[in-house]
Amino acid sequence: MKTKLLLLSALAAIPAALLCTSCIEDDWDDDYYGTRRPSYYDRYDRYDDYDDGYRAGYEDRRRNERRRDERWERDRRERDRRERDDRRDAPARPHIPKGFVRAGSYTSGSTIEAPIPTRNPIKQILLAGTSGSATINTVVLREGAKTTKYPLAIHLPAGQTQMIELGGHRKATGIRVSTGGHGTFDIYVH
Fold this sequence. Notes:
The chain has helices at 2-24, 30-33, 58-89, and strands at 101-107, 111-115, 122-143, 146-157, 161-170, 174-189. It is an alpha+beta fold.
């Protein structure tokens, strides 16, 4: 019986000793003096505005967090404004259907000679405005010595397309386009 009591009292004394040793290490001042692990705030504001490097208190951290949030909001608004302006100023990209081959990019203002990029017969010509505003007066399709004239007289701003149906497959050797205005456009054949 005595051994059982002695053993129980010894087991009861061990956790009490462990509790007392854990009380010896007192870390109440760790947050105040900066010996703790870095937190979320330390990533951005390590010290406050004082010259002696005294660690910022809670109020200073909140102030710095508000400043950081205000800077982030201001930068986000500026970034959004720039993106809106870029989208507004960017030339519209015309939709080119599948199967069309680009013959070239040309600037309006004179008569343009465009070679046909394929040896296969073509059945359609697509004019796509890329920037500015071009005026297309006539399109002449050359088939060796024979020519076929397609009068258009259209205004072609950036982002718009004009399809010319040739009425069947043609063995074209070149395209001549009479243009005006100030702009650039692409010629595609299918």
